[in-house]
Amino acid sequence: MKHIEIQGKKVVMYDSIDELPIRRFHKWQKLLMVAAGVGGTLAEFDSHIERVVTFLKTNDRDNAVKELENLRQNVNMMQNEVPLAGMAFAALIQSVDGKECNDISEDGLQRTLDLLGGVTFGQVQAETLASKKKIDHELTIYFPAVFDDVVARQYYDDVKKRTMLILEGIISGEDSDEVQALTDKLVTTVKPQTWTGVRSVEVVQDKAFEDLCLAMSKEFGVDAKRFTVMEYYTAQETLAKLAKKRSNRARK
Fold first, then answer.
1. Which residues are CB-neighbours of 93 under 8 A, at least 6 positions away?
2. What is the model's pLDDT at position 156?
3. How does pLDDT run across 178-229, given as a tens digit for each residue?
4. What is the dihedral of CA 58, 61, 63, 69, to 10 degrees?
5. pLDDT tens figures, 78-125
6. What is the pLDDT of residues 126-137, one digit of tens each?
7. Would you list the DSSP string of 54-99?
8. Residue 82 belongs to what H/E stretch?
9. Cα 56 from chain centroid?
10. In what order do the strands lie in the sheet with 99-100?
């Protein structure tokens, strides 16, 4: 657990996979995905426009259309004032001034945010990134087969390279064609996904989570939704090994 102070309130946050409940982790991951894929701020609105333009430049009409749909969702989020980043942050909060925050529904997460009063976006972003960095590191160490993503590493290497080129350009006063090339590469590497309807990423992720929890509960005789993140992915690895053994026996 991590103990911090926000707006004079004592906040206890989950930041380790051996304590973080899997249901909270699932909710947190989903909110982060929606925030990244749709967003609800003017900065993200501008990002969607840039991505549409890039896809059109590369004659990728299908992804341009998907990005326009995500742009529409972004506008809806702004109009309805849905604080995606704030709710993702709230999903990691265990208690505020000793009051436990156990409701992780959207209304419950909003009430958790309300307990913090005027928490700023900067505070939310800083604490969320710090927790995410620690949790991601632990997941990569303990479960590399699931979380060690080569494509993601290359993506962030390109982000770092682009940032350095921009800084070098500011110092030298010269623009680099490589910056635009990297920008286009980064935009087209991460394809837009569908966030509405029965095929939305949220629906697919929720169903996959429920299916795996049912399989674990049936195999191990426990309620998998009560697992910590560490227990859940350990059980997932064990389930995969058992399935492989059974498959090998069946072939013999």
1. 11, 12, 13, 14, 101, 112
2. 67
3. 877 877 777 777 788 888 878 888 899 999 999 999 999 999 999 999 999 9
4. 130
5. 887 778 888 999 999 999 999 999 999 999 999 999 998 878 878 888
6. 888 899 999 999
7. HHHHTT-HHHHHHHHHHHHHHHHHHHTT--HHHHHHHHTEEEETTE
8. none
9. 27
10. 2-6, 9-13, 93-96, 99-100
Q: Which residue has the tokens 């389930």?
A: 239
Q: Extract the runs of DSSP E, i.e. beta strands, from the chain.
A: 2-6, 9-13, 93-96, 99-100
Confidence of residue 151 (pLDDT cuts 50, 70, 90): low
How many angstroms separate the CA atoms of 34 and 82, rounded?
Answer: 11
pLDDT above 90 coverage of the chain, percent:
46
In this structure, the number of other CB atoms found within 10 A of the CB of residue 11 comes to 23
CB 157, CB 29: distance < 8 Å: no
Asked whether 96 and 116 are in contact (CB, 8 A), the reply is: yes
Interatomic CA distance for residues 2 and 14, integer angstroms:
6
The alpha carbon of residue 98 and the mean position of all alpha carbons in its chain are separated, in whole angstroms, by: 27
Tell me how far apart the alpha carbons of residues 58 and 70 are, in angstroms, rounded to a whole number. 19
Geometric angle at alpha carbon 81, from 80 and 84, rounded to 5°: 115
Output the six-digit token pair for 157: 């290497």
Model pTM? 0.81
pLDDT for residue 18 is more than 90: yes
Give the confidence band of 153 by pLDDT, cuts at 50, 70, 90: low
142 touches 230 (CB < 8 A): yes
Residue pair 200/70 in contact (Cβ under 8 Å)? The answer is: no
